[in-house]
Amino acid sequence: MYISETRKSDSQKEPSEPGMSEAGASTPAARGTRVGHVLTGNVLALGMVSLFTDVSSEMVTAILPLYLIYQLHLSPLLFGLLDGVYTGATAVLRLVGGHVADRFRRRKLVAGIGYGLSAVCKVGFLLAGRSVPLIGLVVGLDRTGKGLRTAPRDAMISLSAPPEAQGRAFGLHRALDTAGALIGPLAAFGVIAAVGSTTNFNAVFVVSFCVAVIGVLVLALFVREPGGEASERPKVSLRGAVSLLRDRPFRRVLIAMVPLSLVTISDSFLYLVLQRSLDMDANLLPLLPVGVSAFYLLAAVPFGRLADRVGRSTVVIGGYVALLACYGLLLLPPGYTILFAVLALRGASYAATDGVVSALAGPLLPEEHRATGLAVVQTGQALALMVASWAFGALWTEGGPQTAVQVMGVALCLAVALAVVLLRKARG
């Protein structure tokens, strides 16, 4: 294990707690009971919120390439700009959401505002019509909601699980989240088939809004704010948040993750490369995310358990190696076997990196700055992904998709090598 992932201060240890041995360690029975309770309580409720929200968001995500490329006839460069906005233009709000949630001890409220804003934006797509600037504005506001909610939500998951179960907690959450991502494109495809038109997407936006509202209601009714009373917790200040970067293990994790995100091809571009190389019917494009989500769903919980057992850093590195293999397959002669393998590797890569990165960074952070610290990592990743979309769009425009994939593949090799060195040196 590269990093000490179960680090706790002396003040956090409670030897007198029921179920503790004389040496101060939890007995296996006590740990099992505590972990089992956690993974069926707050974590499960947050997972259901994410399930409904992802059904809603992935309905829209699945049709955006079809809508923008084939109906509005955007070039790869312009699509890359919009895709970058979707990924990271409002990433700095992750910092705002994380810090506000920590400072006022209202992680649930801040997350709820983010979920609510994203729900309202589904109606915004109806109002934007065919205007590309307005679509870009709605996309930006939708990502603002995601930026506000992600760090407080992950902080609630981290604070609701014991250190030895971080990987399993995030694995369960990401499995439910991914179940929504699996259902979303299928729902969009079904709605389009039901209305009998591949040029009118308003019905998709309406259904997406209704599903998002259900997610907000689940959050309000079933998720509790983790932690003790506000008076029991240390005061949170901006200076204290900035001081997180002085912690060497946390800083090395951050520095390792940004270059990896900077050379990650967005899913939308990945699907476009596959669709064009196979000369696939464009109307089938919304089904490609289903394959990725299916493999992600199957691997999320096992990879979370594996991360707790062999080391979260090891699993994260393995996830990016799988992504590198995915790039290599894109350069081979096209075929449906290649298509299947690419979708499988991309899903496995997500399962090994998405929640595991939060499980890796979370225990390195004090409770009072948990949301802020996770927001710092997520903001760095989101901004890097935004730049990656712009760069890939420009590379595609200048040299074609194969050249763009080759450049990103070489860069990913270098980023993985750097991450291995940094995470080893970050050993606590």
TrEMBL record:
Entry membrane topology: Multi-pass membrane protein
Annotated compartments: Cell membrane
UniProt name for this protein: MFS transporter
Disordered, as annotated region: 1-31
SUPFAM superfamilies documented for this protein: MFS general substrate transporter
UniProt KW keywords: Membrane, Transmembrane, Transmembrane helix
Recorded superkingdom: Bacteria
InterPro entries (UniProt xref): MFS, MFS_dom, MFS_trans_sf
Taxonomic lineage of the native organism: Bacteria, Bacillati, Actinomycetota, Actinomycetes, Streptosporangiales
Gene Ontology cellular-component terms listed: plasma membrane
Transmembrane domains' residue ranges: 43-70, 76-97, 175-195, 201-223, 253-272, 284-303, 315-332, 373-392, 404-423
Organism of provenance: Planotetraspora thailandica
Transmembrane helix as UniProt keyword: yes
